Amino acid sequence: MVDSLKNSARKVQDALDEAGLACEVIEMPKTTRTAREAAAAAGCSVGQIVKSLIFRGTRTQKPYLVMASGANRVNEHILADAVSEPVEMPDADFVREKTGFAIGGVPPIGHTAPLETYIDQDLLQYAEIWAAAGTPNAVFKLTPTDLQAITGGLVIKVA
Ligand code: 5CA
After folding, report:
1. Which candidate, 43, 37, 5, places its Cα nearest to that of 24?
2. pLDDT per position as a tens digit, 106-158
3. Atom of ligand 1 nearest to the CA of 52
4. How many angstroms separate the CA atoms of 109 and 100, rounded?
5. HSE of 54 in the Cβ direction (CA atoms, 13 Å)?
6. Among the CATH numbers 3.50.50.60, 2.40.50.140, 3.40.50.300, 3.90.960.10, which is that of 2-156?
């Protein structure tokens, strides 16, 4: 029953509904805090897990959201080129402040404020991908096309 969702997962379900996407947030019995754990819980490959990573521009302090394949490590130099400034990995407080969610559950949508978003081109090879839905055990399944539509993200090579 959707009404049993935790507040943070409910926020994501509401954002999905508002975006007109027929995606259902699922709370797993086991942790989905890391990409590997999420893949095990969803029964998919690690590459099909969408990591929602926040980077910070070192000049502007602006947050950038990178939706990366769970199989990839984001190359900060490539991202710096895309955003035209050096980037760094911020601390957990910055992530919570800019997204409204804690690390381990940061979703692609439903953030405190809209975020400039980039999508790992490697995610486009899959028919279905899974993303975090607000908490360390909530996920939802979507297509790469959906991900582009709901985030307005620019597809780039990140790894
Ligand atoms: N729920 C899973 C799968 S969707 C998940 O959220 N994975 S994740 O990769 O998107 O989020 C974890 C990421 O948060 C890590 O890859 C890392 O980039 C970042 N992270 C973890 N710990 C910290 C920390 N202390 N400070 C800043 N970033 C961190």
Report:
1. 5
2. 999 999 999 999 999 999 999 999 999 999 999 999 999 999 999 999 999 99
3. 10
4. 10
5. 27
6. 3.90.960.10
pLDDT for position 2: 47
pTM of the model: 0.96
Report angle CA 89, 110, 11 to the nearest 5 degrees: 120
Count how many Cα atoms sit within 13 Å of the Cα of residue 104 in the half-sphere of its side chain. 10
CA distances from 14 to 20, 23, 86 (A): 10, 10, 34
Distance from Cα 104 to the centre of ligand 1, integer Å:
5
To which H or E segment does residue 140 belong?
A: strand 138-142
67 alpha carbon to ligand 1 midpoint, in Å? 11
The C-alpha atoms of residue 74 and residue 66 are separated, in whole angstroms, by 8
Domain boundary assignment for the chain: 2-156
Report the DSSP pairing between strands 138-142 and 129-132.
Answer: antiparallel
Strand partners, 52: 67
66 backbone dihedrals φ, ψ, rounded to 5°: -115, 120
Mutate to test the pocket of ligand 1, among 25, 51, 95 (most ligand atoms within 8 A of CB): 51
